[in-house]
Every structure is written in C-alpha cells, then in structure tokens.
Amino acid sequence: MNRRQFLMSSACACLATTTANVGTLLAQEIPSADGSARLYRCGTPPPTPSEKIQANRVVTALRTHRVNFRGQTVVPVRFHIIHHGQQGYLPDRQLKAQVALLNRTYAPANVEFKIVDVKLHENDAWFYHQPGTDAEVEMKTALGQDTAGSLNIYTAEPGGGLLGYATFPWWYADTPQLDGVVLHHDSLPEAADPRTWPYDLGMRAVHEIGHWCGLYHTFQGGCDAPGDDVVDTAYEQNAATGCPINQPSACPGEARFNPVENYMDYTDDSCMKHFTPLQYQRIKDMVGYYRYKLNPQTNRSALLEQIRKSIE
Q1: Which pTM value belongs to this model?
Q2: Which of 11, 18, 279, 299 could form a disulfide with 275 if both were Cys (CB 3.0 to 4.6 A apart)?
Q3: Angstrom distance (rounded) from CA 172 to CA 126
Q4: Catalytic residue among 112, 208, 236, 305
C-alpha cells in the first residue's frame, strides 16, 4: 500500500498504532537546542520507486518535446491557522514575512506566492495531529479549498515533534483533498518567542514547498544513483544537521562537498542559502506539468495534454 492509499484508508479506519510511530517512520530525529526535547525536521516520506520513475518519464518527455515553462506562475496561498486557545495564533506580519521569503526564494523558478485567504480554526485534534491519521484527513477535507488552483498551508503543532510535511504534486490526482503543506506554527519567521530554534526563520516552508513542487531531499537515496534526480546536487550519504560547511561527501567517487546550504537538506535555518539551477528547472517542470491549473497558459496547452495521454 502506498502513502496515498494509506491516507485515504485512514479516513475510515482506526490508526492509533500507526499514529504512535509515524514520527519515527517518516522523519529523521534530531535534538532540540536545549537537549530537552526531540524535533523531527520533515514528515514528508521519500517517493516510491514507481513515483520516481514516473516523474523521470515526465522530465524526459518535456525535454524530448522541447517544453520549457517560461511564464510566471502565480500561486494563491490559503492559510489555515489551527490553534489551541492562544497557542498557535499567528499575526498577519508573520504570514506576510513568510510569503515574502518564499517569493525571494522561488523567483528564479518564476513562481510567485500571493495570500488570498486567512482563516482561524480552533481545534485541539487538528492542532496536534500527525500525518497519516484521521485528524489529518478530517482537517484537510473540512478546510481545504481549490486545491487544484491554490496552495493550502495549514499551521499547527504536529505531533511527534514534526516541523512540517507536504504532498508531492503527483499525489494530487489520487487524493486532491489532501493536497497542501503543513507547518509548525513556530517555524514561521518573526515569531516573538519561538520554541523551534534553530528552525524559526521560515525555511521550513521553503523546504516543504520544495516537496510540493516536486523536489526530494538532497540525501534521497544516499550514495546510490540517481540520488535526488538532480545532477548538480552532490550525493549525500545522510542528512546534515547544524551547519557543517565544507564537509566532504562520504559517497565514493563524489568529489563535491555535502550540499548543507541547500534548502532540501536538514540543516539549521540560518545555514540554508539556495536551490541549484537544476533544482529550479525541476520546479518549473513539476509545477508546469502537474500543477498546470495554476497557470492558464499551461492549462490550455494541447501539447501537454498529448504528453499526459502518452505517459499516464
């Protein structure tokens, strides 16, 4: 059973046992700043082998047909602020600061984010939910809007110490109601008293939206080819934490340093500096192909429709 099927089945099945273990299954554990608690960087699971094959077929078809997505893609953002009393409440300035960071980061991919809706929802079960549980399905089914034509961002305090998780673009076809990104509310920038240091500068959203745009972790597959399917990121044996600049890769034959400043690694927010040129190209490809309803031009493309029929 893949994760999409698992999420769908969770809407009608008891997942108490899975809930207790989901943090361990889906994310790498790292110590918090004071050593008193544990944080998990990312709850987005790795792609399955068949998903990687299909995504690579898409990229190959786009290059074969010389498709290059040059136009600007505007992504309407719908914030769902899940809170527990005052805990989890986010002022407008933090949402605006987060979107400003996203726009600076994703500008080379011709992707622009605009806030179109902000809603508050007080619900304890949703606030402390974990991915793959009834609470996730209930929350997203109840709150998600126009998942084909916008990005739904849910801020909460996910259980198991998760700082966030996202859906890959190819999951949309099977589970459109679950599409979107979940962020720990303390990971947004300009928090008055963040409890997630050193992960409180807004890079969690940059990272998770990278998954939403079709990127993998830089350490995807470790030293095994093809890694993260982006050739200008170095092979990385394991996720990096802290900020170990100029750390040689432990992978045989890899002469480059570990990509610890890449947004898709697990380093501190202050360490994250960039995507690579080919990561930006992949974002254009994945958003243009899978999230075509965000852009009227690609939505009407007869060539893209022909490509879809040939490979799906």
Answers
A1: 0.89
A2: 279
A3: 21
A4: 208
